[in-house]
Fold ESIP1 protein.
Amino acid sequence: YVLVTPNETRRKQLQQSKLSFAKKELNDLEQWKKAHRPGPITLVPQRLGGNKSEAQVRQNQQMILMQSKYQKKHKREEYVKAKKAAEEAEILKKKAIQREKAERLEVKRRQEEMQRREMFLEDQMYKTNELLNRLDMDLPKSDSCQIANPGPESTAWKRSHAYKQALREDENRRLEEMKREQQKKAELMEFKQKQEEENRTRSLFNFYCTLRINNAFLDRLQNKTQHNNIYQPGCTG
């Protein structure tokens, strides 16, 4: 590689030329500032401020500040109440849904239980009729009964017939009672659901009415405060 030694004389000349150029620019800047310096300002004397004292102005400011704090606090409380009411309404809605599901499951379980009872009663009736038919077959024929004891039907046949009739009437009565009970329960459940729906609708309507009245009151109060602040005598923009 080749190392070139700098020329000291030329280096000093370049530095001096740079310094002289910088001083010339600074002098030009100072001369331009002096030439463009703003002149004296002349204003017409006038009275500033309103016709109220400092204590009154401070008091008005304090009142305005307190009103704004009260409005913010009131709005915050209304927001918290609205949020809490919405959460409670959501919880009540979920509870109502779960209650309806539980009631439907209970109705389904009772219907299945009724179906099982009906099947059991039908099977029991079938078995009883089968037994009674076997007993009827085991009884002596009508000719022999007439020869042995002429007259009306035998006492055993009457008892079996009366027993069959009593069983049928008892089963029919049980089925009718179960049907009436299920119908009453279904009507009661429907009435409860309608009443709960009406209560939920009424509570939501009252809540929204109260919220709308409070918002209208706060809007009127805020508009009144802004109107008083804008048109106070002696205040400047």
